[in-house]
Amino acid sequence: MLRTNADRVVEFLLQCKAGPPRTRARWGVDHKGIPFVLPGIGGISVNVAVGDSAFGWAGDHVEPSVSCTANTDKPFDHPNVSLQLYTCAGNPVSLVSGDAQGSIGYATGHHGGSEHVVVEFPREVKEKMTYDDKILIRGRGQGLKLIDYPDISAFNLDPDLLQKMNIKESDGKLRVPVTTLVPAVCMGSGVGATMPGTGDYDIMTSDPATVQKYKLDKIRFGDFVALMDHDNRFGRTYRQGSITIGIIVHSDCMFSGHGPGVTTLLTAGTPLIEPVLDPKANIADILGHGTFVEPKKDE
Fold first, then answer.
1. Among 14, 66, 78, 164, which is disulfide-ready with 139 (CB 3.0 to 4.6 Å)?
2. What's domain 152-287's superfamily in CATH?
3. Integer Cα distance of 173 and 86 in angstroms
4. Segment-wise mean pLDDT, segments of 10 residues, the chain, 299 residues
5. Three-state SS at 84
6. Residue of 290, 282, 16 whose CA lies nearest to 129
7. pTM
8. Which of 61, 75, 70 is nearest to 114 (CA)?
9. Domain 9-140 has CATH 2.60.120.260
10. What element of type H or E holds 296?
11. Residue 251 near residue 63, CB atoms below 8 Å
């Protein structure tokens, strides 16, 4: 088990609710110059879940399951900024009102600067939800440190999820299971952002040959991926030899410079992280529900 300061990490109760689907109320134009009108960010996505493919949807920037906000009137203001910063992937989530009161889910990450966070609930729960239901997140993870690896920074990662990711220690490095190795050249929208503790940044998918070469179209919502030669310790930047591990929070996108969104989890400025390919390196496979989770043997 990795040694951490988990016993000193502050845990907040964060209250939010599902945010209605957003629309640009205008045509979008994709990276080929073709206009489109499609579903996108926000909402209770009844038929889209963690574990589903992040590709192939009739949508753009689609988020799986439930997109949550603390205040729909001021998306870039308090308390949304604190909801974004203090919600971490793997945090337990519960419904505390409505017809599905008592249902349990988990957070997968955050999207869009300081707008909202993404949480997973089973479809049967989503079918009962409304946009007035209160959602409570046990926000825990910011400030997490790996005691034996001070040069590896953790962001947006629940300490309990860290211990469940099947990370192995080997020769002073951490071997981290991921589904995909993403080359640095593919990182687009969000590069240069200085705050790795909120939002995400996108894997560009506008070049079909590159998508096929690196199997980017196999990426699923909730996948752990390795961003090669990317350093997120002090912002999102290219640095040769750096490795960042992130989690996929939204679907493929049609705009130039965009694609599946990645929330930062672990990052190092030198090759202290060794990504290991594993097709089941997905948060749904670890935490127990999502579209493609295989039943456990005792079920």
1. 14
2. tm1086 (SG structure) domain (2.102.30.10)
3. 27
4. 97 95 82 90 94 95 93 76 94 97 96 80 96 97 98 98 97 97 96 92 96 97 98 97 97 95 97 97 88 50
5. helix
6. 16
7. 0.94
8. 75
9. no
10. none
11. yes
